[in-house]
Amino acid sequence: MQQHTQLLLTTLLLSLYGCGGGDTTTENNDTALTTPPVTTPAPTLDAPTVSEQPDPQTQLPYARIAFASEGASGYECQLDDGLFEPCASPHDIYPLAVGEHTLSVRAVDDNGDASEASQINWTVNSLFDADAGIHPDLVATNVQPDPVAANSWRGILRINCDFAHASYDDPIVFPGQDGAAHLHRFYGNTLTDENSTTTSLFTDGESSCQGNTLNRSAYWVPTLLAPAYNPDTGQRLVDDDGQDAWKVVPAVVGNDDEAHEIFYYSAGVDDLDSIQPIPLGLKMIAGDHMGQPGNEQDTSIVRWHCQSWESDESSNPQWSTSIPACVAPDRLRMDIFFPSCWNGIDLDSADHKSHLAYPVNYGGQLGTACPETHPVPIIRVSFHYAFGVKPDVYEPETQSSQGWQLASDMYDASSETPGGMSLHGDWFNAWHPEALQAVLDTCIKQELDCHDGNLANGYRLTGTRPGTQEEPAIINRGKGL
Questions:
Q1: For residue range 423-474, what is the model confidence (pLDDT) as tens digits?
Q2: Which among 39, 40, 43 has a CA at the least distance from the CA of 70?
Q3: C-alpha dihedral over 472, 335, 386, 330, to 10 degrees?
């Protein structure tokens, strides 16, 4: 009996050890006695409250959306079917294509947790949608442009721009630096200054060019100056500092119907179907501000000529690298051709030129085309100014443009070394994308000669308007302080 009882106890103990019931180690005791930590749920962020958003129906190719959520350390935005990406309020979106758009915005806390998203929905209507209302900067027209002349432009739009203002600023070469440049004359966006950016030009201001808000691009050139003379004696005048005095020679700008068009958009290559619109925000410079005697520029890029010469690229290519002595009542003409081959990547470069190139004439079937280094043909921009040789600015003895200089000229003009060799121009794209696409599709690719802002689709751009017309003092022959 006693042996039987001991056997039962032994069996029971073995069973307990086999089930772990006899394990009394510190590790397992600690495990058994540990209480799970109490976690406090992270505070839930509210979906952002939207305080500014586009109209449900608009023709604006950009949108500004402002939002806030208490306690948020940041925000993430998603446009249409894109990905959520970090953003800040106000959030500027551009360029926007015609069609429906949705922006989803959510708040994010310090832990990276996101709130529910707020959604903003709107539709961008076409500029030319009669049902939605034609854009106010377009005018209906029954005039259809003529085909381009033989041996002339391949396809072109010509527009007028009024003078907007002058200043010693240059938002491409000296961004953010007030008064750091030589004296420039600005056309296009009336708010252009040293702080201008793609966002500011594209979303704000009016334009002195035809099309107003459809063409907020900025155009500028060095100011053309004439020696100032006493009208009675013909003697050279001096300024308050005892230095030779100078006067601005204004460009001649005709009215919108009988215009001297000063800005052209055309084809620079033979294959018109290969040309693309100029990308928004592209900055470029044509010509060299260091041009001077012994370093004359290529007249296929920048040039001068008297209007009486009747210069023509194909039949009478008479051009000058400097300002010729055009005699009153003649006009001095100036041409600046910008490069029209893009590297397809950069909107600017260190020298503001390397991201672009000029087409190359390869001859044969290929003809004029873009080089491999810059394979993307874009619309060619060119400036064409006329300056009247008038009594208030001409040289009294010869009654000509003798002695005229650019504010950028680094040498003194004389009868042996005429001024103007530093001719150059700057351009900063802020066209409405749909309007610029129409220029390409209906004028250039259709090989039409579109004058007066006529888009060849039943509409033309509205007329010019002046800017502030501000004319600062001519300091140091236009070179500034």
A1: 999 999 999 999 999 999 999 999 999 999 999 999 999 999 989 999 999 9
A2: 43
A3: 130
In this prediction, residue 38 carries a pLDDT of 55
Residue 438 zone, left/alpha/beta (φ > 0; ψ -120 to 50; rest): alpha
Residue 399 lies in a domain: yes
Residues 262 and 195 in one domain: yes
Three-class secondary structure assignment of 8-66: HHHHHHHHHHHCCCCCCCHHHHHHHHCCCCCCCCCCCCCCCEEEECCCCEECCCCEEEE
The per-residue pLDDT for range 377-409, each reduced to its tens digit, is: 999 999 999 999 999 999 999 999 999 999 999
Examine residue 286 and state whether it is found in any structural domain, yes or no.
yes
d(CA 76, CA 68) in angstroms, rounded, equals: 12
Structure tokens that stand for 18 in this block: 């086999």
Residues listed for the chain: 481
Block residue for tokens 């990308």 = 279
User: From CA 78, how far away is CA 86, in angstroms rounded?
Assistant: 9
Are 54 and 123 in contact by the 8 Å Cβ rule? The answer is no
In a domain, 442, yes or no: yes
